[in-house]
Amino acid sequence: MNRFTTFLLIVLFSCPIIGFSQAAGNFFYNQKAKVSSSSEAADFSGGIYQTQTYNNAGYYEDSWKTPQSDSVMHLNVSVMMNQRPDAWVMILGLTQVGESMEDTHEKINSRISALKNGLSGDFEADDYYIDFISQAPIFGMEVEKKLFSKNYVEVPVGFEVKKNVHIRFESLETADEIIMKAAENEIYDIIKVQPIVEDKTVVYDSLRKECIALLNKKKASLEALGMTLSPLFNALDERIYCTYPIHQYKSYLSYLDHTRQRLRGDERLVSTASSVNLFYDKRSDASFDKVINPLMHGPVLQFTMDMRLSYTMKRIAD
């Protein structure tokens, strides 16, 4: 095989890799250096029964601290549920300055009242909460002249008051209305939007039922293979977790190709700086046995439950 043939084969086998990196989008282009053999995409549990060495992206190995034993057998299941919040709370930040304390409080309270009055009638008094943050004097420099010298002295020239407004709403469409009315009253600081689930026990009860059903299915599969489960005793453990949308936003750098050729001879290329953007990256469901509401899109609450059924088997005498 000559050198040209060897080079051609290398190029041909490299093409699918190049194509994948381009088709994965800008985020993959910026994060490809972080991809390793331990990534979620490369992890496949495979099989019905997993022992203590079960590796689901390192999830069970990190969560369950039971020591390794040749007389203990484990059945592990993991279920995720994507859930829409029942309501949201938006926190807006206000800062007001004035010449006197009374004047400053009057101005900031007037802006808050204008915001509340400008919103539609869907809001009730309990949907608002005013959180007082701070008040402090503002100092300026005043020249104190003496006969042979002058000093710069700090003197109070005004006051600054900070307050936060918490607004509860049940529809995401309402968020646009709140933001627009806030801007009309010179309120631009959107601190946080917190999702709320009224009763988490209902969610975890559903997850628990799914986990138990999966454990019974795995146990039946083992018995169908001729494995008799007659332990001295067994134990059941579970772990729950909730992932909030605010923790799943990631940044990426927009990829702009400055090396393209000009379309016309008289066209002039202008270099544009790359910009940093944010996007919602839902937690991957690759390591879960079952996902409830998998097609739900947009920012959601992601509830998970891991359940482990441990069998302590009778040791055969040596």
In short:
The protein is of the alpha+beta class and 318 residues long.
Key structural traits:
elongated; alpha+beta; four-stranded mixed beta sheet; 6 helices; 27% helix; four-stranded antiparallel beta sheet; 2 domains; Alpha-Beta Plaits; single chain; 318 residues
- Report the uncertain regions: 7-29, 32-63
Strand order of the largest sheet: 6-10-1-9
Alpha-carbon distance between the termini?
A: 60 Å
Category from helices, strands and their pairing? alpha+beta
Q: What kind of sheet is the major sheet? A: 4 strands, mixed
| Number of H- or I-type helical stretches | 6
Query: How many independent structural domains?
Result: 2
Structure explained in plain terms:
The protein has 318 residues and is of the alpha+beta class. It is built from six helices and ten strands. The strands form three sheets. The protein has a four-stranded mixed beta sheet with strand order 6-10-1-9, covered by helices on one side. Strands 3-4-2-5 form a four-stranded antiparallel beta sheet, covered by helices on one side. A hairpin with a 4-residue loop joins strand 3 and strand 4 (150-169). The two termini are 60 Å apart.
